[in-house]
TrEMBL record:
Protein name per Swiss-Prot or TrEMBL: TVP38/TMEM64 family membrane protein
Keyword Glycoprotein among UniProt keywords: no
Keywords assigned by UniProt, alphabetized: Cell membrane, Membrane, Transmembrane, Transmembrane helix
Record-stated family: Belongs to the TVP38/TMEM64 family.
Residue intervals passing through the bilayer: 7-27, 47-64, 71-93, 133-154, 161-180, 186-208
Domain VTT per the UniProt entry, residue ranges: 66-182
One family name in Pfam for this protein: VTT_dom
Subcellular location: Cell membrane
Membrane topology: Multi-pass membrane protein
Keyword Ribonucleoprotein set for record: no
Source species, domain of life: Bacteria
Length: 216
C-alpha cells in the first residue's frame, strides 16, 4: 500500500480555529451580523432540519475538515441537552464507523487521501502505549479522531472493540460540549466554548504525545 507523506492532520484544527476567530472578529468589527440574533435564529430552526444537518456534517467529518467541536456545541444550542446529546453521540459514532469502514474496505488511492504513512505509524505507537483506551482518548482531540478511525480499519482492529472504547470517550466529551452549548446565549459564548475546548484537547494531545515519544 502506497501512501503520501507528511503528517497533515495536526495543523488542520489550528487553521480552522484561526479562520473562525478571524471571521468572527471581522464580522463583528464591521457590524455585519447580529450575533445575539443568530443564537435566537438557531434555536428557532425546525429541530428535524437542525438534527439532520448536524448529523450529516458530523459523519462527513471523516472526509472533510469539518470542525466537529462547534457542531456539537451547536447541537446543544439548537436542540437542548437530551436531544442534542443523543444526536452528538450518534453522529460522532457514525463518523468513527465511517472512518473505520473506509480504512478497512477502501482502496489505497482513497485511504492515502485521508491518512499518510507517518500518521499511521504514529497512531500505531499511540496504540502500543495506551492499548484500546487510545480509541476513547482520541475521540476528544480535533481531527485525530478521524485519523484514528481510518487507522483502526487499516490495522484490522476488531470493530466491536474499536466502537466500544470510542463510545467510552465520546459520551463525556459530547456531554460537556452539549451542556455548555445549551447554556450559551450569544455567538460569542459559543465561539469561546469551542475555543476553550479546542485548546484543552490540543494541550492534552501534546502532553500524551510527549509520553508516547518518551516511551521505550
Amino acid at each position: 500500500m502506497s501512501y503520501e507523506t507528511g503528517v497533515r492532520w495536526k495543523w488542520i484544527p489550528a487553521v480552522v480555529l484561526g479562520f473562525v476567530l478571524l471571521s468572527w472578529i471581522v464580522f463583528e468589527a464591521l457590524d455585519l451580523i447580529d450575533f445575539e440574533g443568530v443564537v435566537s435564529w438557531v434555536r428557532g430552526i425546525d429541530p428535524v432540519w437542525a438534527a439532520a444537518a448536524i448529523f450529516a456534517l458530523l459523519v462527513v467529518d471523516v472526509l472533510l475538515p469539518v470542525p466537529s467541536t462547534p457542531l456539537i456545541v451547536l447541537a446543544g444550542t439548537a436542540l437542548g441537552l437530551p436531544l442534542g446529546l443523543a444526536l452528538a453521540i450518534i453522529g460522532s459514532l457514525g463518523s468513527s464507523a465511517a472512518g473505520y469502514a473506509l480504512g478497512r474496505f477502501a482502496g489505497p488511492w482513497l485511504v492515502r487521501r485521508v491518512v499518510t504513512i507517518e500518521e499511521l505509524t504514529e497512531m500505531r505507537r499511540w496504540g502500543r502505549q495506551f492499548g484500546p483506551w487510545f480509541f476513547g482518548v482520541a475521540r476528544g482531540i480535533p481531527m485525530m479522531a478521524e485519523t484514528v478511525s481510518v487507522s483502526a480499519g487499516v490495522s484490522r482492529v476488531s470493530f466491536r472493540t474499536f466502537m466500544s472504547f470510542t463510545l467510552v470517550g465520546t459520551i463525556p466529551i459530547c456531554a460537556a460540549y452539549v451542556f455548555a452549548g445549551s447554556k450559551a446565549d450569544t455567538v460569542e459564548q459559543i465561539v469561546m466554548i469551542s475555543a476553550v475546548g479546542f485548546l484543552l484537547t490540543v494541550g492534552l494531545f501534546y502532553l500524551l504525545r510527549r509520553l508516547v515519544k518518551a516511551a521505550p
